[in-house]
Amino acid sequence: MGRGRRAPGIRALALVLLAVAAAAGVAAGDPDPDELERAFPIVEPDHGHTKLRLSEQGLDAIRRIENPIAVVGVIGPYRSGKSFLLNQLLSLSCDKGFGVGHMRDTKTKGIWIWGTPVEMDVDGSKVSVLYLDTEGFESVGKSNVYDDRIFALATVLSSVLIYNLPETVREADISRLSFAVEIAEEFYGRVKGQDVAFEPAKLLWLIQRDFLQGKSVQQMVNEALQRVPNDNGDKYIDEVNQIRDSLAVMGDNSTAFSLPQPHLQRTKLCDMEDKELEPLYVKRREQLKHLVASIIKPKIVQGKTLNGKDFVSFLQQILEALNKGEIPSTGSLVEIFNKAILERCLKVYREKMDGLGLPVPVEKLQQVHEMANDEARIIFDKQHFGKHHAAQSVLKLEDEIKKVYRNFLLANEYQSSKLCEARFSECEDKMDHLQVLKLPSMAKFNAGFTHCNQSFVRECVGPAKESYERRMSKMLVKARALFIKEYNNKLFNWLVTFSLVMVVIGRFVIKFFLLEIVAWVMFIFLETYTRMFWSAESLYYNPAWHIIVSSWETIVYSPILDLDRWGIPIVIMLSFGILYWRCFGGRRKRGRGSILPVYKNSYKNSTRPRSD
Questions:
Q1: pLDDT of 65-98, one tens digit each?
Q2: 389 contacts 246 by C-beta, under 8 angstroms
Q3: What is residue 569's three-state secondary structure?
């Protein structure tokens, strides 16, 4: 009976002690477990949606964890059902779990965690499992760099990474994953040291589709990740295979799983109970839970597990490195590793090459190309991105430089052809002009020939010079042969005409008998020689002809006087001079005896009577 009286007092004392303990816990700052039964942001976007910043709400929830932490992260496209999937894995309704987009305004901006970890026994050790939700990529209003940072951060933090994809595996999905792994590996090395191996997460390809057409989802993923044969050396296929090679760090640390659609009316999923969902979906969902639980391992960094405080410190270091580092965008397959750095290197190369005034000799272009290429490589070696893909990046840089260099070679060849063609046309016009000289002169032709050839050799430069030199040589040889062929004929005709003109001048103009005799001798020699020896060509080998040619060349052309240009003005001046002399000069000299034999009208002074 005494014991029965004491029982209510004991119970009351126990209640008081519990209340005191609870009050002490609140005073000490321990959070209320009910307050942790919700999602917390740990990483949020800045105002420009380009960089990330930490959120203390979620970090405080993580810091309290003392057990080794394991993280299950879900990544995937925007509005692909990531938040709903996490709620299903945690057996939570949409109202209590992660915010679902079609239920209310999407809360998944950045990276969120579920505040209450799931306690599991892994290999005999107690592990606290955090479930991590990420902002979907490919949504509007964001840059690709922001998506890449979210993707890479989730890859670094997760122990199990669920890649949630609708229907099938696209090439863009593989490219994005490979780039995220590259970024994660790069910045993990920057934080922990380049010699520290990156511990990749267990990758789970989750394909949401209802049928597979005879293939398992694992076969579909394996086929998508296989290297593509490239016997023809196609550049696009080579880039595709480089992306697959970049996933080698994941090794065999991946698996695939298919999950059918829970119901056709996706916007009402949160209002449905399991009995309203597709039975196959419910069955596969439970299998997925067991699969995830079987592959969960604690997060390991540098060979050590992380508790809550260690995990937060690791997150801060990685996020700081991501925000400081320059990350190229993966907006498409060709925009892969080191894009921004490659562009800077190419810009330096182009600026060096643009300093050349085309056209230039090929040797000089090659020399400047090598100098610019070396400078671009030095910049790339200092700033390149990626630990394992530097070789591929170097190949891409070299390929891009080769493209630019080929363009300069083509431009140099075009400018060289344009310049040489202009000089060649000038020389061709010059030779055509020399062919039709009024007074044929071999000396003038040779002078023009030499000047044209020298100016062409001096001004025509570049790769087209050799071919144009051959054209120039043929043209000059042909022009010389044609000129020589016509030269003797024209000179012969000019000399015949000249002798007749001198006959007329000597007899009727100046009445100089000796000049008339010499002119008649020349005319008779030219005409009778060709008739006696059958052809004019034989005349051209006669020594007398050579003397005539030498005299002609001396009179017609010299560096001081070119009769072909000044012949007509000189003839006009001489005509006026002779006319003046005949009209005025002869009167003053009348009555004087002439020392030259000239024609005189002696019949006026004759005393002989006229016969008529």
A1: 999 999 999 988 877 788 888 888 998 887 788 8
A2: yes
A3: helix
